[in-house]
Amino acid sequence: MRKIFDFHGGIHPPENKHQSVRTPIADAGIPPELVIPLSQHIGAPAVPSVAVGERVLKGQVIAQPRGFVSVPKHAPSSGTVSAIEDRLIPHPSGHSAPCIVIATDGQDEWIAHSGTPDYRQLDKAALLEKIRCAGIAGMGGAGFPSAVKLSIQPHHTIQTLIINGTECEPYITADDILMRERAQQIIAGAQILAHLIEPGETLIGVEDNKPEGIAALRAAASGTDIEVVEFPTKYPSGGEKQLIEILTGKQVPSGGLPADVGVVCQNLGSTVAIHDAIVEGRPLISRVTTVTGNSVREPQNFQVLIGTPMRYLLDRAGYEPARGNRLIMGGPMMGFTVPDDRVPVVKTTNCLLAPTEEELPTPPPAQACIRCGMCAEACPVSLLPQQLFWFAQGKEHEKLEQHNLFDCIECGACSYVCPSNIPLVQYYRASKAEIQQQRRDHEKAEHSRQRFEARQERLERAEREKEEKRAARKRAAEEKARQAGGDGEEDPIQAAIERARAKKAVQQAGGGESELEKLEKAVVSARKRLETASAKLAEAQAQGSDLVDALQTGVDKTRGKLEAAEKALQDYQASDSAAAQDAAQPGDAAQAAIEKAMAARAAEASLSPQEKARKDLKKLEQRLQKSRDKLAASRESGEEEKIIEALEATVTRLQDKVEEARIAVQDAEEA
Ligand code: SF4
Ligand code: SF4
């Protein structure tokens, strides 16, 4: 005989289960419209894979999972997709969410499908994939994707697999009726799970208020190593951690998982769904839902298609809305009021409770806490509900977390026993939602901060690289300039280009004079000065003045200057007649000079080193000859001493260069 343990706290509310188990499971039928929310589970919503107007078959995938913690959605019946839009979904806040709407055709035509009766052929990965592809998520509680829950981490060793047949919440009998009518599938599903997990033992835990279900299960489990364990009824024995403690005596640590104590727990309805998916190849498109409460004439359990509007289902049970005071999804302890009866049945809809006012009176206004401590006595998690209430009122989130708010299973036992009618569990739910929203906001802000910092770093790096490139270019330019300066040689072609550009700029600006104009001006000016000086000399001679000798010297000098100017003009015209022609057409002269120089540079670039050396020598010899001619002319004309000296220095410098160029030619020819 297995030892049964007990957990702290708990209560015994009226069960009210007998009303809905008097008749077998009924088929709810096919409603005209099915509304399938894309998110019916914990994790990422599925993504539609059908379009509006598309015909779909029963069991066809209509939305694909997004990510690991997600499951696909299937068409519960054949028909046409009439909309993909936000619709009201079953949620305490009464909010809308994306749904696929199917206008059913009444044919209930299945898509081709087949199962694997001998599931032992399949390895674990294939089994998990089939469970995931069948869209199976927990059919009680929050709806955690089953394939994720069954993916055991390597560091976990599972001793006990528990199938949760407790169903401790008042009014709900969906699991009880499954045990009575589908015990074989439950046992077969448990065997599939045992094959997958390989636990040391497989237990099905059931409260002793379900004798028919227990008997059916024991009969079906006969000959297997599955043990059906019966234990005293107490609310909330069906809480995962409470059931583990009852059956194994182990306590799951705060914030921990059942696998941390070597246990995997699976919902009974999910176990049947896993059997159907593996053995028959049927995805999760319907479930058993209890419809009960005194405002329905025929409380019972229905096999109902997922997406069926609640009102349609209620009407199958003879719903009399005028008698009801509210509609609850789930039971009176953990369920929530549904604000609109058009919302659809989803995978976690285990019960629709439509009570009358006499049956479940509207709670009276809350009174002040009298510190009776009854809430702490009732709490199955050994929390301090009274303190949690104070912290929740003061929005002291840190203290709420320090007092293990997130271990609260929202069973409502504390609220149930509170003599002051304080809706304690509502405060905890609201506080949890606020904290979770803050965490999401914080994560979002943290992501934004990281993105901002990464961008700043990218920009700074790019700026640094740009700066380094700029500095490298500058250094290269300086080095080039230094080398050019170090040679002491002026690039004559570049110099010609620069001179021509400067000349063009001056001409375009409309200012300055060409070289020819300057020389012509100098000649005219010298002539005028000579005329003036000659006139003064003639006057002095006529008057017999003492200044005649001095004036004669001045006239001679001026004449010499005139001759020098005329000679310079002739030389200029003779040496560069093309330039002189250009000067006559000032608009094109500079451009022509640039082109000429560029052509010369291009021609030079194509020369061999020997040709270039010989050409350089020839140019220098020509310049030397010109300089010598100028010097001779200046000497002949009696030019000023300093001019003669400058010309002599030029001739000497050019002679040296010619010598160097001759050596360069010899070197080039020997090379
Ligand atoms: S049961 Fe209610 S009144 Fe009593 S201590 Fe808890 S919160 Fe206060
Ligand atoms: S609702 Fe939370 S605090 Fe209240 S009894 Fe249940 S577990 Fe404890």
Explain what you see.
- The chain is an alpha/beta fold and 671 residues long.
- The strands form 4 sheets. A 6-stranded mixed β-sheet has the order 1-14-13-17-15-16, with helices on both faces. Strands 2-8-7-4 form a 4-stranded antiparallel β-sheet, with no helix packed on it. It has a 4-stranded parallel β-sheet with strand order 11-10-9-12, with helices on both faces.
- The N and C termini lie far apart (111 Å).
- 49% of the residues lie in helices and 12% in strands.
- The mean pLDDT is 89.
- It has 4 domains: 336 residues, NADH-ubiquinone oxidoreductase 51kDa subunit (Rossmann fold), CATH 3.40.50.11540; 54 residues, no CATH class; 114 residues, no CATH class; 65 residues.
- Strand 13 and strand 14 form a beta hairpin.
- It has 20 helices and 17 strands.
- Bound molecules: iron/sulfur cluster (2 copies).
- One iron/sulfur cluster binds next to helix 9 and helix 10.
